[in-house]
Amino acid sequence: MIALVDKMSKPLSSQLMIQEQPGFALNRYGKSDEAKKRKEQGNGRKTMRQKCEAVIEAEEAIGTGNIEPKKAIELTKILKNERVFWLARRVLKITIDELSRPAPSKETNKLHLKLTHQLALCTYKDPDLANDTKFVEAINCTEHHLIVQWL
């Protein structure tokens, strides 16, 4: 497996699952020091387990139904980097709904704008949505913010 990964094309060998395989193989052969060196030489991407932890944290936050705006921005940044746009959108929608309930203030309007901007961004970048739908939805997000701001 180790030799096979070294012979793969660059696009294929750069995939996260493929990058983890040599480390697993080296550990099986009792070469944990070499596996550790390979991991340190990696390109800084998260492992599958770490990626799942970010998703789990976001799902737990969604389960509570109450997400602090700063936490939502933090989670969204991680989820966008991991290209989990559908989950980032869910986090943002819940947070925006929560933020829209109290009486608006300058601070909540700024947060609402930032969250809405991120929601529109995650919507149009989401590869799971059809192109004709995601652009309309992204525009609707910004229109919704303008309506809420002027009420």
Describe this structure in words.
- This protein is an all-alpha fold and 151 residues long.
- The protein has 9 helices and no strands.
- It has helices at 2-7, 10-13, 16-28, 32-41, 48-64, 69-81, 85-100, 106-125, 131-150.
Brief account:
The chain is an all-alpha fold and 151 residues long. Helix content is 79%, strand content 0%.
- What profile does the largest beta sheet have? none
Percent strand = under 5%
Shape: elongated
Query: What is the CA-based Rg, rounded?
Result: 20 Å
**Secondary-structure-derived class:** mainly alpha
Terminal-residue CA separation? 61 Å
Low-confidence stretches: none
Supply the number of helical segments: 9
Q: Average pLDDT value?
A: 79
Give the total of beta strands.
Answer: 0
Determine the fraction of residues in helical runs and give it as a percent range.
over 70%
Note the run of SSEs as H and E.
HHHHHHHHH
